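ZP: hey, is the nicotinamide-adenine-dinucleotide complex queued? I don't see it on the tracker
AM: it wasn't, my bad. submitting now with these inputs:
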Amino acid sequence: MTIRVGIAGVGHRGIQLARAAAALDDVAVTALADLDESRLAVAAREFGVDAAFPLLSQMLDSVELDAVLVLTPDLAHKDQAITALEAGRHVLVEKPPAYTVADTQAMADAADRAGKHMMVAWNRTFGLLRAKEIFGETGPDVVMADYARPNPAYLSLVRIHVVNPLHFMCGRAAEIRAHGEMSDETQEGNVVASIRFESGALGQMTASHGSGGRSERFTAYGGGYSVFIDNTSSGAGRVLRGGKVVEELEPVDTVAAQMRHFMDCVRNDTPPLNSGRDAVEIMKMTHAIMDAAGFVVPDMPEGRRGWLLWCGGCGAKVIADAASCPECGADWGGWSMSRQKIMQV
Ligand SMILES: NC(=O)c1ccc[n+]([C@@H]2O[C@H](COP(=O)([O-])OP(=O)(O)OC[C@H]3O[C@@H](n4cnc5c(N)ncnc54)[C@H](O)[C@@H]3O)[C@@H](O)[C@H]2O)c1
């Protein structure tokens, strides 16, 4: 059986994931939806697809599909995922599933009601599969996850990449303490959290937005093993036992591995990693860390996508609602749609 896939959102990330889906022998990219006509036309040509629509709802009404990939901006995820699930399709949705626990819960509930799978595209998980195997059912005793970037980011968009590995390795948190500071009234700054998991494991999370470059590190100890993973390069690392390196971990194409996993779950009707239920737990942990650090989550700026950017061209701090920087005119490649448009399903 060929799995027929419809894709909503063929922007930067959408094209990457569409290519990962199209590369699989048993998957046919069958339909596309994007509000941006020119992007839609370019993607339709690349994937040889005639069924191309502005809206996801039109795509669902017009084409038989087994699964939908929701790769639109964050604010559209909840409504689009629920619409696709209610139309009887399995859903892979980009991270974050939503900004709040309640919205994420609504998505997980919709998947349960529909009897369909929903998976969140936290691709870092696929660089940690070997580590998970090494520590087995009991998990590690101690985990540390670190995520550093040179710029702050709005809400938990970035931080979420560092909470997901902790949840994947150790499960639910029993107790969280954290220190942190907002970098200004709307942006997360630096955060350090210590976590006691229900499993008994202890964890530490560090996220910094004033670093000299992007880095993501994951370390775990337990059962006589040490695992060091550089998630900046997708899961490359090493395993030590008895003071010696016993295994070198090769980098993983996490986007390809994630797509294969999702399609296998669709084919075999098996629950995916990073399911709707997992997503609820990850969002709870994310918000608990922010609460413990004393962050006040700001309201979304009305009528805006609510995504603050540092322009790569001139460094100006602007709310993205245009295709280019209003200060210097640098092309942002479309990190930008008005909220009204994004909220269309
Ligand atoms: N996992 C990762 O590491 C990773 C990396 C980058 C982006 N992302 C996530 O991927 C998502 C998309 O980000 P991006 O960088 O591709 O953004 P983007 O702005 O480049 O692309 C989004 C696309 O969606 C389209 N769109 C917007 N609203 C729509 C709607 N209602 N219906 C149909 N199409 C709509 C836009 O026209 C655009 O082509 C975001 O949620 C982002 O957080 C994840």
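AM: back. The longest strand covers residues 187-197.
ZP: great, adding it to the tracker
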